[in-house]
Amino acid sequence: MIRKATPADLPALLDIWLEATQQAHDFIEPSFWEGKFEDMRDHYLPSADVWLYERDGRPLGFFALQEHILAALFVSPSEHGQGIGSALLEKARSMTDGLELSVYERNSEAVAFYQKHGFCQIDLRTDQRAGHVELVMLDCTQMDGAERRAADREAVELMQPG
Q1: pTM of the predicted structure, to 2 decimals
Q2: Cβ neighbours of residue 74 under 8 Å, at least 6 residues apart?
Q3: Number of domains in the chain
Q4: Where do the N-acetyltransferase domain residues begin and end (predicted)?
Q5: Which one of 95, 114, 140 terminates a domain?
Q6: Which residues contact 101 (CB under 8 A, 6 or more apart)?
Q7: Are residues 115 and 145 in the same domain?
Q8: The last residue of a domain, from among 50, 70, 95
């Protein structure tokens, strides 16, 4: 079941976030993420519209929206491959038009997940805090064929050196 998160859910969501983010971003020192724990708890999650997926009363994943931006989507690593991320993504899509997100380029599993679900790359940027390249992606499922081809061409150009 997917439901709106409450303040009482915050400890479980933080546990999911820390475990999943350290696994997905193994190219960044775990201490970096541990240092972001308080920001996540005190600012990041409370400022977002957070929804969680739970089974038998146990949170297994969540997403955070900030307007049309998918700011976070995390699933407990022990629950990967069970459709939880897909269900969360569909719920987020139903709540806004033109969903946008950013994902580290080196997080190939997440990049493939979003591409499989119809997201296309629209930009590149460097996360100054972590020092890694992020892909900015847009939900392209609502684009017509010409718009999608143009976005695909732009993505290829972004990846070219110089």
Answers
A1: 0.85
A2: 16, 17, 20, 21, 61, 62, 63
A3: 2
A4: 1-140
A5: 95
A6: 69, 70, 71, 73, 114, 119, 136, 137
A7: yes
A8: 95
Domain that holds residue 8: 1-95
Q: Give the start-end residues of each E strand in 17-150.
A: 49-55, 58-66, 69-75, 100-104, 119-127, 132-139
Instruction: Report the C-alpha gap between 34 and 108 in whole angstroms.
Output: 22
Looking at this protein, which amino acid is placed at residue 9?
A: D
Q: Token digits for 90?
A: 């569909």
Burial code of 12-34, b = ≥16 C-beta within 10 A, e = fewer? bbeebbbebbbebbeebeeeebe
Does the pLDDT of residue 161 top 90, yes or no?
A: no
- Beta bridge partner(s), residue 69: 66, 100
149 and 76 inside one domain: no
Tokens 């897909």 correspond to 86
| 52-96 tens-digit pLDDT | 999 999 999 999 999 999 999 999 999 999 999 999 999 999 999
Residues 2 and 52 both lie in one domain: yes
CA–CA dist 18, 82 (Å, integer): 20
